[in-house]
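To fix ideas, we reproduce below a protein record of this kind.
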Amino acid sequence: MPVHAVTQGETPDTSQESYATLPDIRRSALTGLPVPARDFLEGGAGDEWTLRRNVDAFSDWLFKPRLLAGVKPPELATSFLGVPLSMPVVTGPIGADALFHPEGQKAVARAAAKLGVASMAPEASSFSAEELHAESPSTVAFGQFHPVGSESSFLRMLERLEATGFRALVLTCDCPTAGWRERNLRNSYSPPHEAVRGNYPDMESAFGHLFRQDGPTWSWRQLGRVMRRTTLPWMAKGIMTADDAMAAIEAGASAIGVSNHGGRQLDGQPGALDVLPEIVDAVGGEVEISFDGGIRRGADVVKALALGADVVLLGRLVLYGLAAGGETGVVRVLELLRDEIGNILTLLGRGSIGGLDRAVLRGRWQ
C-alpha cells in the first residue's frame, strides 16, 4: 500500500460552501480512505468503550447561559508554556501522518501557522522533527517523544529536539507498548514503515524502536532524573489520575496533558473529560493543563476549558481535515472551531476564554 492512502483524484473542494460544518469534513475524509486506513484513524483499543466514552462524556455537561450580559466580541487569545496562541488550541502529536495526505504534518504546521495556533512535531511522524520545525519555526513549538526504550536513545532524541529549537517538549507517558487495537488486528494492518520513520530513517521500523520491550518500563523517578538534563519546559501527556499528575509535577513537569490517547491504548478507562475536574483540583493551578479526548466541535472545547483545561489538543479532527483536503482542510477545521467557540462564548455571556469556569456548566445529574 502506498504511504498516502487517500483516494487519488481531484483535490476536494474545501471552500466554506463545500464544508460548512465539521461533520461535513469528517464524512468527506472517511469516504475517501480505504478501510484499513479508515479503521486505523477511527479505531480504539479493545471493545472501544473508552473511545465512545470520550465523546459521550461531553453530553453529561450542559451549558448555563447568562443573558443580557453586555459582553463584547469574545477574546480567544491565550498562551501555553510560553507559546502565544490566537485561540486555546494546539494540534497534537499525530504520527503516521502521510497516510492521510502526502504533506502530512507539514500541511498541518502550515495550517496552524495561518490560524495563529501551535503544533507538535511527533516522534512517529512521516517527517523529521527538523523538517517540521522548519515549516514554521514560531508555531511548530513543541517536540514530542516517548519515555520508552534505552536512556541512550531517549537522550539522543532529547538532544536533537533541543538543537532544533523547540520551545517546549511533550513526553507521551501512556505508551509503554501499543494498545490492543482489534480493528487493526482484523485487518492485519499496521502503518507502512515509510509513514512513521521520519525521525529514524535508518531503522527497520520506528514503531519497533518505540514499543519494543527489552526491559522494564520507565518510572517517574527515572524520567525526572533524565529530564533534569534539559532546561526546556516539558509536559507529561497521558495523565488520567490525580496521583500521576502529582507524580509528574514532582518529576519536574511544567504542564500536565489529561488524555487517554483517544481511547487507543487502555480500554475500560473513563473518558478523559470524566477525570479532568479531579485532576484540575489536585493540581491546584501549580502547572498548566492540556486536554484531549473526544473533541469533535467548538462546544466540546468550551466545556473542557470551563472544567479547567488551559488548552485543548486536536487529534482526529486534524486528521479529518488533512484527509479531506490537506492544508486547506486543516485550515477549515481550525476556522470552524474558532468561529463556534466565539459563538458559544457570546451565547454564554462570557467575553473571553478567561471568563470560563464551572459556573457556565451544570451536570445532567444536577
Notes: Residues 6-17 have pLDDT under 50 and may be disordered. The radius of gyration is 19 Å.
